[in-house]
Design brief:
mainly beta, 152 residues, 0% helix, four-stranded antiparallel beta sheet, 9 strands
């Protein structure tokens, strides 16, 4: 569909015999891109005891029911108090979604931990996730928390 202007010819869509759609030019989606598939399995033990401190909070609006939420976090710190590990966890409300730990050579050394996880079965609406670290084990120097919905 075109308006007869020069912009009408900036993009070419090619649908080949293998049902593969190719875009020749730039492609921008103004609506939702849906149709992805998702599979995942997770499990684990309870996170270590200690004092947990919040370092990042993300609130986002989930637009669809029953689509997976993908969560990624990273923590960098310095071990303290004789510990040679650090621990982080991601929570939604009072529920721990996942946790991870990382080690260092000795107390006083840089350590880090990362989490790549997901949550399924949530309804549409506002959801808040927090990244927490076990401040009994390490001090915080840097961190990140990313949360997004995978629309299917």
């Amino acid at each position: 569909y075109g308006t007869g202007s020069s912009q009408d010819y900036n993009v070419r869509l090619i649908n080949d015999a293998n049902r593969r759609l190719t875009v020749d030019g730039n492609f921008r989606i103004t609506g939702d891109f849906v149709g992805q598939t998702f599979g995942g399995d997770k499990g684990g033990s309870a996170e270590p005891a200690g004092t947990w401190s919040t370092i990042r909070t993300v609130t986002f609006n989930k637009e669809m029911d029953d689509t997976p939420v993908i969560i990624m976090a990273h923590f960098t710190g310095v071990t303290t108090g004789g510990y040679i590990v650090s621990a982080i966890r991601i929570r939604r409300g009072s529920n721990t979604i996942s946790w991870s730990a990382g080690g260092a050579y000795d107390s006083g050394y840089t350590t880090g931990a990362s989490i790549n996880t997901f949550e399924t079965g949530l309804s549409a609406g506002s959801h808040t996730y927090t990244l927490e670290y076990n401040s009994s084990m390490a001090t915080h120097t840097a961190s990140s928390l990313v949360v997004f919905e995978l629309k299917q």
